[in-house]
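Bench log, entry 3. Co-assembly request; chain sequences pasted below exactly as received.
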Amino acid sequence: MPPTNEPAGQGGGDGWQPRWDGPVIVVEGVHKSFGDVHALRGIDLAVERGRVLGVLGPNGAGKTTAVKILTTLLRPDRGRALVEGRDVARSPAAVREIIGLAGQSTAIQEELTGRENLDIMGRLYHVGAATRRLRAEELLERFELQDAADRPAKGYSGGMQRRLDLALSLVAHPRVVFLDEPTTGLDPRSRMAMWDVIREMVGSGTTLLLTTQYLEEADALADEIVVIDRGLVIAAGTSQELKNRIGGDVLEFVVDRRRSAEAAQAVRGLSSTEPIVDAETGRVSLRVGTEGSQALVETVRRLDALGIHTEDLGIRRPSLDDVFLALTGHGAEDEENGAGSRRGKKARRRSDRRAS
Ligand SMILES: Nc1ncnc2c1ncn2[C@@H]1O[C@H](COP(=O)(O)OP(=O)(O)O)[C@@H](O)[C@H]1O
Ligand SMILES: [Mg+2]
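Structure output for the full assembly:
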């Protein structure tokens, strides 16, 4: 069905009827450089209405640059980006009417209370006083901020600030929302709470583009994932497709290192790939695809039969590092110093991804 080019009317109101039938977010061949740093080197994206796109990539990959272009804060050097058919460079005001953004630098005014922050945001969008009060109440409740509503935001925990920031981006009922690393730096519990909030938001029909450094987060929230590295899309698909490409889940356990070779021998054949043994730590790992639970049960049985005691036995989801290793031959290293510069192991963050 060809998209109509008619704008869908004023954003921000209740009861909107979107008339845009094509992909809600489109990015075509977008380049962006800062001096000689090529942050984006020609990326393409498309998101259909009501869907969630996860843009997954390490620090410095170009995620924030892409979000800034889509939210009219930066102009692309080349290529184009459209939101509901509106060109972000040519019609920024029209785009701003229909989008919400919770970025890496927050929109919160720290001296003001949560409720005051929401009220000010409502004023910015010309929402009437009565509606503003209602909307603030509704958002405070939805984001579990009622108890803190009348305290200055500077006293909020990290998780509360992120929730308030997200609430602020929703004051005007945007149809399209951009979240730039919504849970980076949060502890596992706050991260889960944020995921619930995001899921609920998507359930109500919002189209969402979210960036993240966590494969687990993209997995939990996104319908489709694009992996970006040094300003290029290096893979795209559903979470399952990406995991299949990299060989799926990993079964791991630790045994007395003197028996690690024997243990590896015992689990050989549980998958089509060979077990990997770290003889120094006694850690044995095995790619088990999507057959993890069967492999787990069988591993316990076989090692028990040999009287080998295991520690830390479990199935590990692949991490962003695993994805990168499989796709590029290098890990998801920090590239903050610019495309092409490598800082080795500094930002390998496998461990923090396993926590949640
Ligand atoms: N305003 C800027 N000036 C110079 N370099 C920038 C600027 N913004 C981003 N960069 C560089 O562009 C690259 C991509 O950055 P960014 O989009 O912030 O990545 P990500 O959000 O994925 O961490 C990085 O090398 C970063 O240092
Ligand atoms: Mg960023």
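The longest strand covers residues 37-47. Residues 1-15, 335-356 have pLDDT under 50 and may be disordered.
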